[in-house]
Amino acid sequence: MPIENIVIANLSCGGCVNTITKTLMAISGVEKVDVELLTGTVSTHYLDGITREQLTQALWSIGYPEATEKNGLLTKLKSRASCLTGKITGNKINQEYYNKTCSTQSNKSWVLAQKSNLPS
Fold this sequence. Notes:
This protein is α+β, with helices and mostly antiparallel strands.
């Protein structure tokens, strides 16, 4: 089974990991996804027939381009939205989680502001 290792930009916390894993696992033929938060590496185990381009395009579409690509404001905003979605769907919306996983104070502030806008 082939394995593709892709170093990505904008990876900051467990919410990002959750969204990336769900997105790549939704591709037919992907068997396993490992995301290394500290290095920004996504390792994808897949069946023959999947290309690196398919994987990088899926990552780019949710705001996580390869670290070698241009990383503009729109891409960064997409990654923050994907991060928040990953936190919501992972049932990890609480202060302790943010304190342990968000890499910067600005991420914590932004995510907490978004949390306050969620319906109860």
